[in-house]
Write a structure and sequence with these properties.
Elements lengths: L2 H34 L3 H30 L3
Helix pairs in contact: 1-2
Length: 72
């Protein structure tokens, strides 16, 4: 893998990780608001989506770690 590609991929992974975490936080905040307004099902699904975003961030973090270690 070329060094330029590795640098770009690392930057993209970092960006996606942070972007997902921001969305997860926002989903959780709005889920709480939805719950307070009686929207229990919507709130539950939003919290589920927040968890899925966190799992995606974990996978992306693992990808970044393998890239930084030079694993094929």
């Amino acid at each position: 893998m070329s060094n330029d590609f590795k640098i770009k991929l690392g930057k993209l992974l970092n960006h996606w990780i942070e972007h997902n975490r921001e969305h997860s936080r926002e989903f959780s905040e709005w889920a709480q608001k939805a719950s307070q307004h009686g929207e229990k099902t919507a709130s539950r699904e939003m919290l589920r989506a927040a968890g899925e975003m966190e799992r995606a961030s974990t996978s992306l973090s693992q990808a970044l770690a393998s890239l930084e270690k030079g694993e094929p």
